[in-house]
Amino acid sequence: MSRTNKLLHLIFAVIVIVELTGRLIDNVLLEYPVKPLIMIWITLYFLLNARKRTFRNGVLLAFFFSWTGDIFLMFSGGYDNEMLFYTGVGGFFLAQVTYIFIFLLNAENDIKGLLLRNPLWFIPLLGYGVLIYWLLYPGLEGVMVPVILVYALSLIGMSLAALNRRDRVNYSSFRLVFAGSLFFVASDSMIAINKFHTEIPYAGFLIMLTYIIAQYLIMRGLILEKPRPASNNQ
Fold first, then answer.
1. How do the domains of the chain map onto residue ranges?
2. So what's the pLDDT on residue 151?
3. Three-state secondary-structure class, residue 231
4. In the chain, N or C terminus with fewer CB closer than 10 Å?
């Protein structure tokens, strides 16, 4: 790791520690100044280190949507302000849709995706999505029934698209992005369960911890994705 990247990681560690401490002790004076910096740091690190440039704009768009989700959720008052909460969720929905397109449309070769080669791999993640929606359904009312369904489909779809990258990209890139997608699923699942089903102890801390890990792993995995050989470029 270069000296610049080591310095950047030191800065990131400070941002994360302050953010998670603020969450743990419920102190907005600690959290609010640093939370917007998380996706800004991830974007900067990606720009400085990405090997593959053809999907740069799409990745930056996903990061931007995630950043807007962070900002709106931050000001939703612990998810009490309904308008800001759902606007933030909308930002993450757009981020997930963007990630889906990035994961599906970019590859290092012409090998078919894992899910096309073996559709049985759909079952675990789809089953998890059905289970979570079944758990949340009794607490949903009116328009929230289809809204949460669509969001759940986008969330599980993002992780499935990450899984589909297996053998289409180098293994280091695949495993980091897929692991990140699972942390994203865990983070958003906790948000939904905490709001619509059962209050989770230390929910804010756990949600933010898994979210930061998710975005960091996805970013690092995308950095490692290699450009297609020149002879295969279209």
1. 3-228
2. 95
3. helix
4. C
Backbone CA torsion sign across 69, 211, 63, 93: negative
Structure tokens at 206: 């756990």
Residues 53-100: pLDDT tens digits?
A: 889 999 999 999 999 999 998 888 766 677 888 899 999 999 999 999
Inter-CA distances, 38 with 68, 90, 209, Å = 12, 19, 12
Low-confidence stretches of the chain (pLDDT beneath 50): 232-234
Q: Measured between alpha carbons, how far is residue 217 from residues 27, 33, 43, 90, 200 in Å?
A: 27, 23, 13, 22, 24
**How far is residue 96's CA from residue 65's CA, in Å, rounded to a whole number?**
9
d(CA 59, CA 75): 25
Structural contact between residues 172 and 206, judged by C-beta atoms closer than 8 angstroms: no
The tokens describing 44, both together, are: 């900067």
Q: Residue 156 half-sphere exposure, CB side, CA atoms within 13 Å?
A: 19
Angstrom distance (rounded) from CA 44 to CA 219: 10
